[in-house]
Amino acid sequence: QVQLQESGPGLVKPSQTLSLTCTVSNGSLITNYYYWSWIRQPPGKGPEWIGCISASGSTDYSPSLKNRTSISRDTSKNRFTLQLGSVTPEDTAVYYCAGGVRIGVGHKFNYWGQGTQVTVSS
Length: 122
Prior knowledge:
Distance between the termini: 39 Å
Structural class: mainly beta
Number of strands: 11
Radius of gyration: 14 Å
Oligomer: single chain
């Protein structure tokens, strides 16, 4: 069973960069046709897809977050990382990593991390 685990600081100050890592167990970041995504859910709101990195290493980002988002990976450690710059309190959310396949312009996620709360506050 593929398992994903998010890690990173739970508190980030405004204007700083949020950095989270997702470690994949019993699976591989280079599995054909797989995309590894970051999704977040702010309090009281629905989930928001942030971006993904493919098995080949190409990236894709939500247009609304593209200017301050970067997703990278370390295949030797089987983990991928989210960096979100210039954060504000509106970036406070539970952040999830997930793995799945592309369906049209969307994704079908087969694997999810448990989620990690990130609060942006001074």
